[in-house]
Amino acid sequence: MHSPTRLFHLHFNTPDVSHAEAELDAHGLPPYQRFGQVDGEFHSLDASDPVPDGFRLRLQNAQRGYVNVTIAPGRRPHFDHLGLCTSDFDAICDRANEAGWSVRDRDGRRTFVMTPWGFRVELHRDGSDVEADLGSWDDARFERVELAVSDPDAEDEFRAVFGEIPGLVFRQDTDDDGVRVPRFELGGSAFSAGETVESTSFL
Question: Model's pTM, two decimal places?
């Protein structure tokens, strides 16, 4: 890992979480954890744990190595946010504020930077609990993630705040449905031949 800022997380909403889980597993990203409630009480379940009666799913993760893909129930397929780990945490938050972007819960467990393009960026310091829960970068990582945005200036403005992020590729998209991640590619020793995941395959 040579870059100060690395992509580790993508979060999607979908009406069919079970289908998404099966498709991600088929692409080499096995179920990892589920989070939800039973009668208003929060529950965190490992993938192998039995699901209690009345469990209302809030979100679930698929994870391998330094790759975490979260799926949450939603009325329509939708890309919600991406997540970064960085040694430039304070500088990024300062640049986001200078750009007029909202930075939420800067001193909390999950900091979110609100971009102007309808998606958020979840930001973690190097060595955080969230990063410590990840596996090895060498085992699995995002090799390439396509971010389709209609604004032609989005890439330059994004990089002015976050800097260079290996594997994150911007694509201008004239679609009016907002920002999308149409596909991502996985690399590392677990994906020595590479693995391309089309978002339409699981959303």
Answer: 0.94
